[in-house]
Design a protein that fits this description.
Blueprint lengths: L1 H8 L5 E3 L2 H8 L8 E3 L6 H10 L2 E4 L2 H14 L4 E7 L7 E4 L9 E2 L3 H9 L4 E7 L2 E4 L2 H22 L5 E3 L17 H18 L4 E3 L3 H5 L5 E11 L2 E6 L7 H4 L12 E3 L10 E4 L8 E6 L9 E4 L26
Parallel strand pairs: 1-2, 2-3, 3-4, 4-6, 4-7, 7-9, 9-10, 12-14
Antiparallel strand pairs: 5-8, 11-12, 11-16, 13-16, 14-15
Bound molecules: pyridoxal-5'-phosphate (PLP).
Pyridoxal-5'-phosphate binds next to strand 8 and helix 8.
């Protein structure tokens, strides 16, 4: 959402993007291109050309991508600025989405990294450092501390083995937000205290290294609410359904179809009629699939046609992570207030 990116650009030290489209949004902000990085497997030659021309940092995901970056840099007459993304040999425990450890399409396996780093140092590339991202959406502070500590250890070991100095080290994020009953906000103070120690360790070996963490969802996820209007209210065999003009085509994550194994409800309410009567209803979308659920049997039974169903914790993985084209309903409107 460009308006959010503009707003956040003034508050953060850098932006990591995951597509050519996101890169253009980031380049439209006042952020220094040196502090924009581009991760993600499958960067096209066009993506690589745009990134190299803009002077941002490419997080290289494979040997093939490294070769293409060199070729395109040569054609453009620009030395690409790069980090190597490493797939660590550990994962972020108790995370919603594991992005490292085991066989993964992301980054270069840590066992292969020293050889690639030595190779890259001899190529026309400006190698500035490493990117290690092992998972997302964790509410377990100890697991995050462990993953960050292991990421620093790994980076120090790889840099020593490959004989190069880190100017930049991105150890990913993984800090989650509470979505479901029983989940609590992370206490970031212990994570911060540990990071202070880790920065000292890093600077002892690489005094000029800039340490980055990625806090995408953690920064914006709780700031967003999704609102859909009830267009029909019906009862099927005793169960009340509120059929809304929004659903999984706007908010796939709340429908439970973005990686949930057992569907759980996001927090939701009748936004214009907060005081309920305790009766239950399910809020569904207009798509002809039983997957199109916003709230399954929640205390929304007092909602009437025209009322607003509000889904909280919707500031991340909203419309941009949803199948907007499915059945060609109107797109979600995004507004920064
Ligand atoms: C490289 C990278 N950065 C950031 C993220 C987003 O993390 P979060 O969900 O914590 O915003 C992901 C998600 O998978 C990722 O792969």
């Amino acid at each position: 959402m460009p308006a959010v990116v503009q707003h956040m650009a003034a508050l953060v030290d850098g932006i990591d993007v995951a597509s050519g489209g996101e890169l253009r949004v980031a380049l439209d902000t006042p952020m220094n291109p040196l502090h924009i990085s581009f991760a993600g497997p499958g960067k096209s030659d066009t993506d690589l050309s745009c990134a190299i021309a803009a002077g941002i940092v490419l997080n290289l995901e494979s040997e093939g991508e490294t070769e293409r970056a060199v070729r395109i840099g040569d054609r453009l007459g620009i030395t690409p600025r790069v980090n190597v993304r490493v797939n660590p040999d550990f994962e972020l425990k108790s995370s919603g989405m594991k992005m490292g450890g085991g066989a993964k399409p992301f980054g270069i396996d840590s066992e292969q990294a020293p050889a690639l780093l030595r190779e890259a140092a001899a190529l026309p590339l400006q190698l500035s450092g490493l990117h290690i991202f092992c998972g997302s959406q964790s509410l377990n502070g100890e697991a995050i501390i462990e993953a960050q500590t292991r990421s620093i250890e790994l980076a120090l070991r790889l840099a020593a083995e490959a004989g190069f100095t880190l100017a930049h080290l991105n150890i990913g994020g993984g800090l989650g937000i509470p979505y479901f009953p029983g989940e609590a906000r992370l206490d970031a103070s212990a994570i911060g205290a540990n990071l202070t120690v880790l920065v000292k360790q890093l600077h002892a070996a690489h005094p000029d290294a800039r340490l980055a963490i990625e806090l995408g969802r953690h920064l914006v996820g709780e700031a967003g609410v999704y609102v859909a209007r009830v267009v029909d209210r019906k009862v099927s065999r005793g169960q009340v359904f509120l059929v809304t003009d929004g659903g999984m085509h706007h908010h796939l994550a709340a429908s439970g179809n973005l990686g949930q194994v057992i569907r759980k409800n996001y927090p939701a309410a009748v936004g214009n009629r907060m005081q309920g009567d305790g009766s239950l209803a399910s809020a569904v979308g207009p798509l002809c699939t039983p997957l199109d659920i916003l709230a399954d049997r929640m205390e929304l039974g007092h909602a009437q046609v025209g009322d607003l169903i509000v889904v909280f914790q919707s500031g991340a993985y909203g419309p941009s992570a949803s199948p907007a084209g499915f059945l060609n309903h109107p797109a979600a409107l995004e507004v920064l207030v």
